[in-house]
Write a structure and sequence with these properties.
This protein is α/β, with parallel strands linked by helices. It has helices at residues 30-35, 46-54, 62-72, 101-107, 119-129, 135-138, 157-164, 166-172, 175-178, and strands at 5-9, 21-25, 74-78, 80-86, 94-98, 113-117, 142-145. A four-stranded parallel sheet has the order 3-2-6-7. A three-stranded antiparallel sheet has the order 1-4-5, with helices on one face. β4 and β5 form a beta hairpin.
């Protein structure tokens, strides 16, 4: 540890053969790393919302949840591959090494939209990933959703549910294919 900071390493992506959306977090929390899974903190609402939206709820084994996401066209990853931070506080992240998201976008041309699980994921993407994207990948809309983290308790669950429902439009509809990408993502 350096000044109370620990070095964190993220997980490989959950990625099926033809993802339509990519949900990006910042970096797994200590609880997620200890659990060995994305959004492993018991109060994180990600899997609760995925259960309501696509049937990948926390009552299912983790591997089954991952397969459901893949089958529905949802890829899941974090912007940071490595970073140091104090405990699980995203605001204290330093020494960020990004994941290979530009390569993923080039190789998976089925992607139509990128969703950010919170402001820190979007901020890291804009700083470390966007400058490395090719012209076609730059056209992907980026949409910030409210963080599912228990640290984001100021937004009520119903508001989070309404915001996260937007992913369904990009899985089942044509909205993502006909919308030009904004330079910055709209605020949820």
């Amino acid at each position: 540890m350096d000044g109370g900071r620990e070095r964190y390493r993220g997980f490989p992506p959950i990625l099926g053969p033809r993802p339509r959306i990519l949900i990006l977090g910042s970096l797994p929390s200590r609880a997620s790393i200890e659990a060995g899974m994305y959004y492993g903190h018991p109060r994180n609402l990600f899997w609760t919302l995925m259960g309501e939206l696509v049937g990948a709820g926390p009552d299912l084994p983790y591997e089954k949840r991952a397969r459901i996401l893949e089958a529905r066209g949802i890829a899941l990853w974090d912007v940071a591959r490595l970073a140091s931070r104090k405990a699980s506080a995203d605001a204290s992240m330093r020494d960020v090494v990004p994941n290979g998201i530009p390569r993923l976008c080039r190789e998976r041309r089925s992607l139509r939209t990128i969703f950010f699980n919170g402001a820190k994921a979007e901020e890291l993407f804009e700083r470390f990933v966007r400058p490395r994207l090719d012209a076609e990948s730059l056209r992907l809309p980026g949409i910030r959703l409210p963080s599912t983290s228990p640290a984001n308790a100021s937004i009520p669950l119903d508001a989070k549910r309404r915001a996260w429902r937007r992913i369904l439009d990009h899985l089942d509809g044509d909205a993502s294919r006909t919308t030009k990408a904004p330079r910055r993502s709209p605020r949820a």
